[in-house]
Design brief:
The complex is a heterodimer. Chain A is mostly helical. Chain A has helices at residues 2-16, 31-48, 50-71, 87-95, 97-128, 135-143, 150-160, 166-173, 188-197, 201-212, 216-224, 229-257, 261-266, 278-287, 292-320, and strands at residues 73-74, 82-83. Chain A has two domains: 30-71; 91-320, MetI-like (MetI-like fold, Orthogonal Bundle). In chain A, 70% of the residues lie in helices and 1% in strands. In chain B, helix 2 packs across helix 15, helix 5 (102-133) crosses helix 9 and helix 10 packs antiparallel against helix 11. Classes of the chains: A mainly alpha, B mainly alpha. Chain B: One of its GO terms (biological process) is transmembrane transport.
Amino acid sequence: MTATLGEALGAVRDARRPGAAGRRPRRGAPRQRLTRRGRQEAGWFWLFISPWVIGFLAFLLGPMIASVWYSLTDWDSFTAPEFVGLDNYVRALTEDPIFWKALWNTLYYAAVSVPLGMAIGLYLANLLNKQVRFRKLWRTLIYLPTLVPLVATAMVFKMVLAPSGPLNDLLGVFGISGPQWLLDPNWVKPALVVLSVWGAGGATVLLLSAMNGIPREFYEAAEIDGAGPVRQFWAITFPQITPVLFFNLVMGLIGAFQIFSQVYILTGGGPNNSSQTVVPLLFREAFEFYHFGYASAIAWLLFVVIIGFTAIAFGTSRKWVFYETEVR
Amino acid sequence: MAATSQLPGLSSTGPGLAGAAASTGGEPRGRVPAPILRAFRARPSTYAVLLVVSALLFTPFVLMVSIALSSDRTTAAGAFTILPGEWNWQNFVDVFTTDLPTGRFLLNSVIIATFSALGQVLSSSLVGYAFARLRAPGKNAVFVVVIATMMIPAQITMIPQFVLFKELGWVNTFLPLIVPNFFTNAFNVFLVRQFVTRLSNEIDEAAQVDGLGYFGIYRRMILPMLTPVLIAIGIFTLTATWGDFMGPLIYLNNEEDMPLALGLQYMTSTTNDLQTPPWNLVMVGSIVLTLPMIAVYYLGQKYLYEMNLNGGSAGVK
């Protein structure tokens, strides 16, 4: 998917350039005929892309405009919406302590789970990049958790994280008496992080394929220069795979900000809103309390947060993402 | 790479199998195996870490099976063990005969996932082909819009879409979950477009000379060659809709309409406070929910790798 992200950006660049690739030469054809045929071809183009156009208007652009309007109204979906200006936004930002708590919890979750998942994924990828026996088996075992649907994951982790569950049993072996995890306001967020780390293998597989693309000569040269494995990792492997890490960072952040099923199923936001995050809060406001206006405002605030953090990630990428070679 | 394989002073130590070397260094067959560089040398500690990590990651699966095989009495007491101590295979039958329609849940999941995948495959191939091959004024601007739509989070459109589908009377039907898939999405359009762009133009031109129209070229020439990318799109859509929880939660309120992902949550929430949920049956359900995803991944792995899209996050999003 990393190559694809790069291609997506490249495709936009190509599309902007006049006379872009993908055009067929049309020299020699008489002008008049060409326009008629050209018009016909354009007609077919719009016909072919009509599914996207209809979907875009009906399920994206239309709803987006409606969402802006809803967010400026007080609407319970049964009576007529009442225009209230920016009240919903003001309420979320200044009057609703649960919104701030949910936003803080979401930031905490994103800030801990994404880097931790990346670090573990990277560490495992580097281990598997060595010449280990049964590599395919290890890779499968590490990747397997990412294939489990979230609902099933949540069900299992409800048991794993039970006060007398296997995780606390394991901690007990080391003489640590484990916390109540999902029932303890201080430990419920780390519990969600534990669940997310179980899927760190998704990053491992991506990083491993990026590591396979690093030219062997780099390591041979470093070897002659007397660099040890750790030095080689930081001087060669890490810079070469920063584009994949960057991709993982951006996609991971976007996904983490939208966390829903785990919270909804495992904690319902509790205890005492200590694990409430933005999307479950939005869901509750919209589909349990029917505050469509307020929920729409929360959706736009979340959008601003996501765009903001994505922009920050892109802004810092110049400093640490290595794009000088063709390696992606 | 092969040219630099002989370095003085480095001998092949450790598990220097030629096959293993080929997988890391890209060594062609029949050559002398490259010496293992220090960065790639596996130590006993490497295996120790891999063993511990794999065991930790695998424990939830073992626990899942162990609970699934527990008796009702053990379940009520909550006295589960990590390793299976009981072997109540009957649970795998019972889950379909309880008062909750688990068989129906499964059927609903199959219907929703199949039609969604079908919709994405059909629509994305049409739209992607047009963006790759047909010329029209404004096409490039439209494509920029397509790419830009990838940045809009689903939460923005969730509420207005609900209002729309409610007006249409589609709540408590599968339609809100299936129909949008027939209008494609940006990522799949993009995948098909990239794939078609890499195909040779000559096929189209030859077909055009033979009198095929644009739809004929798409149907007879392009579509058969799109198999790998369409299988990949089918797998993405299957895994996404199969595991989808929020969509069914919003639109499906009746027990008999629920897909398995929602049905499992429903199983744990319907029991009153005095009763423990039937965790053994819930775990059987979780296994039933998980196995098709593992099967689909392994059957389709080849195509996913071909698309250079391995390692998408099917589970954790």
